[in-house]
Write a structure and sequence with these properties.
The protein is built from four helices and six strands. The chain has helices at about 5-115, 115-120, 130-290, 295-300, and strands at about 315-325, 330, 345-350, 355-365, 370-375, 385-390. The two termini are about 50 Å apart.
């Protein structure tokens, strides 16, 4: 395949590959952005849920503290009531013992009084009032004691009821405290799970951010490379245009050279025919005169007879296109269009140094044939040597 056609194809493939890579990176960037938004939203939800759980935990802590304070207060009250109950029990036992003692004393005294009726009867009116007063006081004391015992019994029953209620409340508070403790443990476990989840989400967010950063760096790098390739593509397109122009110029020069070469070949064929005719004429002359003349002498003495020396335009510069060392003539790229005609002499230069002289013998539009007239010793005229009109 031609290189001029291969280069655009290669750059088109590179541009397509870079475009595909850019599209993939852009798609990956959008996906990462969506994942980042989703993770940020999940993090916000988890944060809100964690805050609500913390609030619930704080509320449970406050409730637990209130219940503990209430339990301590109830326990202190209960201990006071139990102490009071113990005091009342002790007092009740003392009163019961005192009552039993009094009852025993009354029984003994009643027996004593029953055993001594006569003494009581004969004692007169002076002892009767005292005995009646004593029994009246005794009955009053007994009634007061019985009333007090009943009051103490009521207070004891009330204390028992209050104590049972306090026990019930204590059990309820203990069960509530256990429930609060369990709820607190559950909330703490949930908070720990949520915190672990948040840590994982945070690590995922960091990883996503790092991946996004790397992707952005790669994208920027690819963009930079894409810009560099675009600049190189522009430069190469310019070079391509220049090369195409150069190729066109070379093709034109090639066509011109081919045209000139074809002209030179025609001139050389004509020159060869003329030389053959001259050789035949020389042979005929030699045979007719009986003189032996060498080919070299003939060629020197009989250059193209039609050529007349003359001066053409001066300062014309051209170059040698072809050399025939055997026939001692050359072809140059100066012709009728340059004003050169048969007989004009040209200097042959190599590196701006004169190495010989030639004389035009036949012309065409763009080329001419010339005989080598003079050449420096040890030097041969070559293609590409410069010729200048004298």
């Amino acid at each position: 395949m031609d290189k001029t056609k291969l280069i655009p194809v290669i750059f088109l493939i590179l541009v397509l590959l870079l475009g595909g890579a850019a599209i993939m990176l852009y798609t990956e960037k959008g996906k990462l952005a969506e994942d980042n938004k989703k993770l940020a939203k999940d993090k916000g939800d988890l944060t809100a849920e964690r805050d609500s759980l913390r609030d619930a935990n704080n509320k449970l802590e406050r409730d637990k503290q209130d219940y503990e304070e209430r339990i301590q207060s109830i326990s202190s009250k209960l201990s006071g009531i139990e102490k009071e109950r113990d005091d009342l029990k002790k007092k009740f036992e003392d009163i019961s013992n005192e009552r039993d003692t009094l009852v025993e004393k009354l029984k003994e005294k009643a027996k004593t009084e029953a055993a001594q009726p006569a003494v009581s009867a004969t004692s007169g009116s002076t002892q009767a009032p005292a005995s009646e007063e004593y029994w009246a006081d005794f009955v009053k004391v007994k009634a007061a004691l019985e009333v007090k015992v009943e009051d103490l019994s009521k207070q004891l029953n009330e204390a028992k009821l209050k104590l049972s209620e306090l026990d019930k409340n204590n059990k309820e508070l203990t069960s509530k405290l256990d429930e609060i403790t369990k709820e607190k443990e559950r909330v703490e476990n949930e908070m720990e799970i949520k915190e672990r989840t948040m840590r994982i989400v945070s690590r995922d967010l960091v990883s996503e951010r790092e991946a996004r950063k790397i992707a952005m760096e790669e994208l920027n790098k690819l963009r930079s490379e894409n810009n560099d390739l675009r600049r190189e593509l522009v430069i190469l397109n310019k070079e391509k245009v220049q090369l195409q122009g150069s190729i066109m110029d070379v093709a034109e020069k090639k066509d011109i050279l081919e045209h000139k070469i074809s002209g030179v070949e025609n001139v050389m064929r004509e020159k060869s025919l003329e030389l053959d005719e001259l050789e035949k004429e020389l042979n005929t002359t030699i045979k007719g005169d009986g003189k032996v003349i060498s080919r070299e002498t003939a060629s020197v003495e009989l250059p193209p007879i039609v050529v007349k020396s003359g001066s053409g335009p001066k300062g014309l510069r051209g170059e040698v296109l072809a050399v025939n060392p055997e026939e001692k003539f050359v072809v140059v790229n100066l012709g009728e269009n340059s004003g050169i005609g048969p007989g004009n002499e040209l200097k042959v230069l190599r590196k701006n140094k004169e190495i010989g002289r030639i004389q035009i013998i036949e012309t065409r539009k763009d080329i001419s044939a010339a005989d080598i007239k003079d050449i420096n010793p040890g030097i041969d005229i070559q293609e590409g040597d410069t010729v200048i009109s004298r």
